Amino acid sequence: MEGFNYKGYDGLGLAELVKKKEIQPIELVEEAIALTDSLNPKMNAVINKMYEQARKAAIRELTGVFAGVPMLLKDISQEIEGEPITAGSKAFLTYRAKVDSEYTRRLRQTGVVFLGQTNVPEFALVAVTEPAHYGPTRNPWNLDHTPGGSSGGSAAAVASGIVPIAGANDGGGSIRIPAAYCGLFGLKPTRGRTPVGPNYGRAWQGASAEHVLTRTVRDSAAMLDVLHGHERAGAFSAPPFEGSYLTAAATPLGKKLRIAFSVKSPIGTEVDADCREGVLKTVRLLESMGHHVEEVEAPVDGDKIAKSYLTMYFGETAALLASLEEVLGRKATAADVEPTTWLLGLLGKATSAEEFVLSLREWDRAALQMETFHETYDFYITPTTAHHPAKIGELEPSSSEKFLISTVGKLGIGGVLKKAGIVDQIAQKNLARTPFTQLANLTGQPAMSLPLHQTKNGLPVGVQVMAARGKEDWLFQLAGELEESELWQDVRKNPLF
Question: Looking at the 3D structure of the chain, how many domains does it have?
Answer without folding.
Answer: 2
